[in-house]
Design brief:
The complex is a heterodimer.
Chain A (H helix, E strand, L loop, with lengths): L8 H11 L18 E11 L6 E7 L5 E7 L3 H6 L12 E8 L7 E8 L5 E3 L13
Parallel strand pairs in A: 3-5
Antiparallel strand pairs in A: 1-2, 1-4, 2-3, 4-5, 5-6
Chain B lengths: L1 H36 L10 E5 L22 H9 L34 E6 L2 E6 L4 E6 L16 E7 L2 E7 L19 E10 L2 E9 L8 E2 L3 E5 L12 H15 L6
Parallel strand pairs in B: 4-5
Antiparallel strand pairs in B: 1-2, 1-10, 2-3, 3-4, 5-6, 6-7, 7-8, 8-9, 8-10
Classes of the chains: A mainly beta, B alpha+beta.
């Protein structure tokens, strides 16, 4: 069954199935600078697997030994599960590399989580809007 | 020469056979799909799990808009609209005051502008509609009762439905004025008369058009465009609740910080 623009229904349904929990975002993505992501190495202090915003909290130490306490927003568990996440994917103490779109407000240490490299080397996407090839992504 | 010819013929035969086989497979699948869509269906049967198939508002991250344009607002509505700080659309800004951010109910029509699945269950005298988004349900009374005369204002109002040919016409009144019409901050008053028209056009497709009649807020009736639902029997509802304590924690630890509202 084809729609006007030749997109088959299955594709539309597939896209919407991925997107529908995104609608639970309450529009917070407007707070983040999606074009200027940073990649940080840190230690997980908390992984809150909750609906509609999963969060990861992690500490990043600089060369001088100062610790910045970061908080990252991720998609809902339903969306994350489809790209390989489980509630067990991160534990406090895990060493991770996180690519994050920081807030537009400066020096908040809060952002929208993109790629996460887990301790076992596996890389997972934290937000569909930041995955390679997504709208507004590079 | 003869051996090569024989081999070529065998390869050709294999290729041709394979092509017919795969073509047959595809043909079978599309024939099956066509059969489902054209399967006989009682249009007065809206039961099933439906997924909102039409994308509105332009773009992957957009939410459904009620219609492409908005009728002129009254002064009362304009003041409400100006005070609303949404997280979506042209007026989106960090740290807004969207009431669903503190888990207020979505209300109508906002609940219907979500793409998450819904399930229609028809019972004698009523249709009950379940919404995955915000774990909500509504009862549409179809036992010929009238709308109440002076209903207490509620988040979702009081709904009655009746069949107009193959269309279920639903009328709802008795709203409070605490919800937004959509994700962009458009208001409605407690005088809103909200109508929905559901029509199952084939086995897999249902159309919905809506209208808002709210003279306290809009100087003209506001009609929606046509929303399309598709039947999806495999869709299984997830638990999708807004939990006030979790939203509050998220707002404090992430949302407000991201908006530069607190120092940490």
């Amino acid at each position: 069954m084809k729609y006007k623009f030749g997109v088959s229904f299955a594709t539309v349904l597939g896209v919407l199935t991925i997107l529908s929990p995104l609608f639970a975002h309450h529009g917070s993505s407007v707070s983040y600078d999606l074009a200027n992501r940073v990649t940080l190495k840190g230690t997980v202090t908390e992984f809150a697997w909750s609906n509609p915003h999963t969060q990861v909290y992690f500490d990043v130490k600089d060369e001088k030994g100062n610790i910045a306490h970061w908080g990252g927003e991720m998609n809902s568990p339903g969306v994350l599960a489809r790209s390989g996440w489980t509630r067990h994917s991160l534990q406090p103490g895990d060493q991770v590399t996180i690519t994050i779109a920081p807030s537009k407000a400066p020096n908040t240490h809060v952002g929208l989580v993109g790629k996460v490299v887990l301790p076992n080397g596996q890389a997972l996407e934290g937000n569909q809007v930041l995955r390679p090839g997504a709208n507004g992504a590079e | 020469m003869r051996k090569r010819f024989t081999i070529s013929l065998m390869v050709l035969a294999a290729v041709v056979t394979f092509s017919f086989w795969t073509l047959g497979q595809t043909g079978d699948r599309s024939r099956a799909a066509k059969a489902e869509t054209s399967a006989p269906v009682d249009p007065h049967d809206l039961s099933g799990t439906w997924v909102y198939a039409e994308r509105q508002g332009g773009g992957v991250r957009a939410h459904g808009a009620f219609s492409p344009d908005v009728p002129p607002m009254t002064a009362w509505a304009q003041a409400r609209f100006d005070a609303a700080k949404p997280g979506y659309g042209p007026r989106a800004a960090p740290g807004g005051n969207d009431p669903i951010g503190k888990c207020d109910p979505n209300g109508l029509p906002r609940l219907l502008l979500q793409a998450a699945p819904t399930e229609f269950i028809q019972l004698p005298g009523r249709v009950v509609i379940f919404y995955e988004w915000s774990h909500m349900w509504r009862t549409i009374w179809t036992d010929m009762r009238q709308l109440p005369q002076d209903p207490d204002p509620t988040w979702y109002g009081y709904s009655v439905g009746k069949w107009d040919g193959d269309t279920l016409v639903v009328d709802t009144i008795g709203f409070n004025d605490k919800t937004w019409v959509d994700f962009f901050g458009h208001p409605h008053s407690d005088e809103m008369h909200f109508a929905e028209r559901y029509r199952r056009v084939d086995h897999d497709t249902m159309q919905l058009t809506m209208s808002i009649d709210d003279p306290k807020a809009y100087t003209k009736p506001w009609a929606s465009d046509t929303k399309i639902y598709k039947l999806n029997p495999k869709a299984e509802f997830r638990e999708s609740m807004c939990v006030a304590s979790e939203e509050e924690s998220f707002t404090k630890r992430i949302r407000d910080r991201a908006a530069g509202k607190s120092s940490q």
